[in-house]
Amino acid sequence: MAEQIFRGIELLPETKVVNQLFILLHGVGGRSADLVPLANKLRDAFPSAAFLLPDGTHPFDGGGNGRQWFSINGVTEENRASRVAEAIPALHTLVRHAQDRFKVLQSDTALVGFSQGAIMALEFSVIHDGNAGRVLAFSGRFAKLPEKAPELTTLHLLHGEDDRVIPVQHAYAAYERLMHLQGDATLDIASSVGHEIHAALTDRAIHRLQTCIPLRSWKHALNGA
Questions:
Q1: Domain ranges of the chain
Q2: Contact 119/142 with Cβ under 8 angstroms?
Q3: Does 163 qualify as catalytic in the annotation?
Q4: Is the dihedral angle over the CA atoms 86, 87, 88, 94 positive or is it negative?
Q5: What does the pLDDT profile of the chain (225 residues) look like in tens digits?
Q6: Which listed residue (26, 55, 115, 125) is catalytic?
Q7: 158 close to 199: Cβ distance less than 8 angstroms
Q8: Which CATH number does the domain 3-224 belong to among 3.10.20.580, 1.10.10.10, 1.10.287.90, 3.40.50.1820?
Q9: In 3-state terms, what secondary structure has residue 150?
Q10: What is the SS3 assignment for 124?
């Protein structure tokens, strides 16, 4: 995706020196502006990071002026994965272009998604393992539980216990599968929280980013010892 066709919001560090890159993906029918409050909270914790908030690649086919990453009209458990897979190449191009533009390493890149955006981020981590060092998935799910866990991407699953749109059982199932596959993941569940980016979850996300040492780093250290 060429820079001139990027549609969305950019929040760049005041120092102009970019050390980390965050790409935030909104939910179906939403817009990039929906994620500005989350981006601002992350900026307070990571002032030298660049934040890109792209609008979804397609107009929302449910009406209004929202955007979507893939259509949910007629979506089923059987066809969801193929729809997501078709949407991933455009996101991959966006991510790589942004990394080249800001000269940021893949390991210093984080994909942050809410709802449909979280689905995209999780599937991206499987298809393009290591192209982002971290994934923060708010109120999301895998389109299809993975058969192989990402080795070079750390996944942080954040979910409301009372989510009625994407039930919390999807987060538990994803975490259980990732643990079975010896993946690198964390799970945080907020009680009495629905389908939203709640302050309790954003606080946990920042805590995870600041304190969680990737499993691959532990393995490297143990091998060295």
A1: 3-224
A2: yes
A3: yes
A4: positive
A5: 334 457 899 999 988 889 999 999 999 999 999 999 999 999 999 999 999 999 999 999 988 899 999 999 999 999 999 999 999 999 999 999 999 999 999 999 999 999 999 999 999 999 999 999 999 999 999 999 999 999 999 999 999 999 999 999 999 999 999 999 999 999 999 999 999 999 999 999 999 999 987 766 655 555 654
A6: 115
A7: no
A8: 3.40.50.1820
A9: coil
A10: helix
The 3-state DSSP class for residue 97 equals: helix
Q: Residues with Cβ < 8 Å from 132, sequence gap 6 or more?
A: 23, 95, 106, 109, 110, 111, 121, 124, 125, 153
- Residue 157, C-beta contacts closer than 8 angstroms, at least 6 positions apart: 137, 140, 171, 174, 175, 185, 186, 187, 188
195 is catalytic: yes
In whole angstroms, how large is the CA radius of gyration of the chain? 16
The token pair at 80 is 């969801």
Listed residue (154, 122, 153, 152) closest to 137, CA to CA: 122
Residue 113 in tokens: 């998604």
CA 138-17-106 angle, 5° bins? 50
What are φ and ψ of residue 114, in 5° steps? -120, 130
First-to-final CA distance of the chain: 43
**Helix 80-102 with 116-127: angle, nearest 10 deg:** 80
| pTM (2 d.p.) | 0.93
| Catalytic residue flag (residue 82) | no
Q: Of these residues, 55, 163, 184, 188, which one is catalytic?
A: 163
